[in-house]
Amino acid sequence: MTIQRICCIGAGYVGGPTMAVIADRCPEIEVTVVDINQARIDAWNDADLSRLPVYEPGLDAVVGRARGRNLTFSTAVEATVASADMVFISVNTPTKTKGLGAGQASDLRWVEACARTVAKAATGHTIVVEKSTLPVRTAAAIKTILEAAQEDDQQRCFSVLSNPEFLAEGTAIRDLEAPDRVLIGGEDAASIEALAAVYSHWVDEAKILRTNLWSSELSKLTANAFLAQRISSINSVAALCEATGADVREVARAIGTDSRIGPKFLNAGPGFGGSCFQKDILNLVYLCRHFGLPEVADYWESVVALNTWQQHRIAQLVVQKLFGTVTGKRLAIFGFAFKADTNDTREAPAIRICGDLLEEGAQLAIHDPKVEPAQMARDLKQEAAAAADVLSGTGSWALAESVEEAVSGADAVLILTEWNVYRNLNWAELAGRMRKPAWLFDARAVADPAVVRAAGLTLWRVGDGED
Ligand SMILES: NC(=O)C1=CN([C@@H]2O[C@H](COP(=O)(O)OP(=O)(O)OC[C@H]3O[C@@H](n4cnc5c(N)ncnc54)[C@H](O)[C@@H]3O)[C@@H](O)[C@H]2O)C=CC1
Ligand SMILES: O=C(O)[C@H]1O[C@H](OP(=O)(O)OP(=O)(O)OC[C@H]2O[C@@H](n3ccc(=O)[nH]c3=O)[C@H](O)[C@@H]2O)[C@H](O)[C@@H](O)[C@@H]1O
Asked: Which residues are noted in the entry as NAD(+)-binding (predicted)?
């Protein structure tokens, strides 16, 4: 079975880059990415490649090569499904906000809508691939919907595969072009091999893992849970370092050189953000409770609890160090995205930390190289202030176009995202614009402590007991 036409439902952070790389590497396969969001599709079709809806280093070049050749972005969902022999489902699966499982379970309404669209529109044999991150056993629900359609029309048949995505934002293209592994779960060997043949255009055979459906679905949740758990673990140690005089970077190096532990993902910081870690762990927690494993659920839930605590802890220590009040004080926030090299702010630590500081009455001047102010307003649930009303005691925020503008008159700077531009700032010059005594709270430990101190700033660095 050779795949000739791929349809991907969902032109988001995963669907767009993933399909762009498949199209780039497999010029003989027609790849069409469809979405119900017209504005998003228009942005993917923008002649100006700097205006694609997702910012990822290298994405513009990949899209530039494939678009108009064998890569298409469209809102014609049903027509594209009808002509495809493989349909990826890459739609959003956020945490449910109400009803059964609210706050933990995944909201599967968009995935189910896709299954029903495929059931209605597909022709011939169609391989349906779960690309979204899903609770284990979702494939059973998708199969049930598709089988009902098959009974109505015997000309059609379906196979369901699980092919979770492991890319990280900011390095999506690198991760897609040279993945650690590609995971394919399924029951039908021919369909598994058809998808494996797509990836084998550029991925070594040894890196293409085949499992059963449920192992594949569960591996994705488990991978994210393990990664997030490492961050909560190192952040818990960071707090202990601050209390004892140890330095978390030294501890991370010391433990990371043990080959069983490994050096990656041991950076202490303001806690993990991003659209998936929290959502996927809460989903795992929900599943554990559902399957009667409350102790396992509690274990994983503590990873999220530690993360939330770390964010509140940082906001609180800023208040404490600034003489117990930040009301009316100007604070410069460097970085709003959940990590560097992305414009994504979903679950960004900055949201909770800025929220706490606004609650305390601070006047925030927020700088970020990529995040739009309209996004900040949505995240902070508050419009930017035209002019700071210092005496009202109510917190407000404003966008700063430059780091210089952000620090002018500020009592403190908080570095919340590890953007490269914050690594080698002229702290002597910046300190000169601040009100004294002035502080730097470096939650990402990117600034050079010696330079910061020489500039006359008092420094707090995450996990640094010496400061
Ligand atoms: N963002 C990331 O870095 C990663 C995300 N994932 C998973 O991939 C999935 C997708 O995530 P993102 O791409 O970030 O989401 P996203 O929210 O950026 O994109 C999803 C897209 O699906 C579209 N959509 C929803 N229902 C539709 C329907 N019925 N028909 C057509 N289009 C529809 C939406 O309009 C939206 O554009 C999620 O399950 C997520 O957990 C997995 C790995 C990495
Ligand atoms: O399922 C997903 O959505 C993806 O989630 C993460 O990718 P992503 O959230 O894009 O970014 P990460 O690099 O994992 O960073 C997540 C958060 O952890 C933080 N982090 C990461 C590493 C570290 O050592 N310390 C740390 O605080 C980052 O700053 C960021 O806020 C995983 O790394 C991907 O494998 C997975 O596919």
From this structure: 10-15, 35, 40, 91-95, 132-133, 169, 276-279, 346
Per the structure block, which two tokens stand in for 254? Answer: 């010391």
**360 neighbors 326 (Cβ within 8 angstroms):** yes
Atom of ligand 1 nearest to the CA of 133: 39
Closest ligand to C-alpha of residue 227 is: 2
452 conformational bin, left if phi > 0, alpha if psi -120 to 50, beta if neither: alpha
- The Cα–Cα gap between 281 and 300 comes to 7
Q: Which residue ranges make up each domain of the chain? A: 5-211, 212-467
Angle at 76 between CA 73 and CA 79, to 5 degrees: 120
Tokens for 168?
Answer: 């990280």
Which burial class, exposed, middle or buried, applies to 193 when counting CB atoms under 10 A from its CB (0-12, 13-18, 19+)?
A: middle
The tens digit of pLDDT for each residue in 358-398 reads: 999 999 999 999 999 999 999 999 999 976 555 577 899 99
Structure tokens at 448: 């050079």
CATH fold of 5-211 reads Rossmann fold (3.40.50)
379 lines ligand 2 (CB under 6 A): no
Distance CA 11, CA 154 (A): 31
Catalytic positions, written as ranges: 276
Task: Convert the pLDDT of each residue in 6-38 to its tens digit.
Answer: 999 999 999 999 999 999 999 999 999 999 999
8 A C-beta contact, residue 440 and residue 459: yes
Neighbours of 50 (CB within 10 A): 7
Secondary element (H or E) of residue 34: strand 30-34
Q: Whole-angstrom Cα distance, residue 406 to residue 430?
A: 10
**227 close to ligand 2 (CB < 6 Angstrom):** yes
Say yes or no: CB of residue 168 within 6 Å of ligand 2.
Answer: yes
Q: Do 5-211 and 212-467 fold alike per CATH?
A: yes
CA distance 425 to 11: 37
Q: Which pLDDT tens digit goes with each residue over 252-286?
A: 999 999 999 999 999 999 999 999 999 999 999 99
Beta carbons of 275 and 253 less than 8 angstroms apart: no
Q: Write out the E strands in 187-279.
A: 208-211
How many beta carbons lie within 10 A of that of residue 451, not counting itself?
A: 15
Residue 254 CA: distances (Å) to CA of 267, 271, 372: 13, 21, 39
> Domain 212-467 is in which class?
alpha beta
Residue with tokens 């690198």: 174
Give nearest CA residue, ligand 2 atom 8. Answer: 168
CA pair distance 6, 87, nearest whole angstrom: 6
Sheet of 458-461, strands arranged across: 396-399, 363-367, 330-334, 412-415, 439-442, 458-461
